[in-house]
Amino acid sequence: MNPASPYPIGTPGTPWGAAEKAAWLARQPIRRSYADEVLARLKAAVPARAELLQYGVLDYTRLGLPRYPLHALRSRDWNPERPTVLVTGGVHGYETSGVQGALQWVATEFDRHAASVNLLVLPCLSPWAYETINRWNPDALDPNRQFRAGSPAAESALAMACVAANAPSVDLHVDLHETTDTDNSEFGPAKAARDGKVFDWHAIPDGFYLVGDTERPAPEFQRALVAAVREVTHIADADEHGCIIGTPLEQPGVIHYAKRELGLCGGMTGARFVTTTEVYPDSPTATPAQCNQAQVVTVTAAIAYLLGA
User: Fold this and answer.
1) What phi and psi, each to the nearest 5 degrees, are found at residue 155?
2) Has residue 3 got a pLDDT over 70?
3) Mean pLDDT score across all residues of the chain
4) What ranges do the domains of the chain cover?
5) What is the per-residue pLDDT for 309?
6) What are phi and psi of 120, to 5 degrees?
7) Residue 289: C-alpha distances to residues 16, 55, 97, 279 (Å)
8) Where are the strands (E) in the chain, listed by range?
9) Residue 185 C-beta-side C-alpha neighbours within 13 Å
């Protein structure tokens, strides 16, 4: 979509009401299967040191949509003397390597690290959005702005409850995301239309970057992760204004957001170390396998840094 073109739903400058949200929902077809691509993989190969738990059900039958069971993997041998690591993926369901990278990390790395740290992995927080390749949930809410008390997004509320029940003290949180061309062609314009605002366009950075927390910047931690990922795929450069997606660069490959203030997933715990990955799957020089591997490498490097800190 041309940034100058109005979004095809609603009236420019007027926030959406129920009718516009219903019209938006009607435009969201199922494009892939959460059951086949996520749940089947989880259930087929649970690591020896993990237990698979269901932490809730997303029930959208009121909208004529299915119920989605939500699953997490937790260390079977939980030891309160060990540091605790939380990995989340699929907060934005359309960000494919956030989900598939989490699943790949579980398959290849979970058992190797479970002897040193307690692990809780939520690989796909937003299954409807995964199936429809979407940023929002069916209520036209971005779950990654709803990690706060009384959250109206069930995806966020159930994830927070799962973490509180299973990992009340977290030392490291890695939240797996992507930045895609559709952020400019679809999701940014849709958000602007929903909110009755003008779309704030920014160039999509070509490459991997991290979003640290303004309150917990941990620059050496972030630097170590960027260095590890650089061996797998390229790191995004700042634009001519020294920014990535409108935010000033703190160091190569790293920007900061106020995660708690914004209601981001990365702000839901008091972890000493927290980061959000941003892989660029639309790059002409990156493959889906590289994107998944970048997510895997980030989690593994983050654990190594935690244990050496």
Assistant:
1) -55, -45
2) no
3) 96
4) 18-308
5) 77
6) -135, 120
7) 38, 29, 9, 12
8) 50-59, 67-75, 84-89, 118-122, 172-176, 209-213, 243-244, 247-248, 254-257, 273-278
9) 7
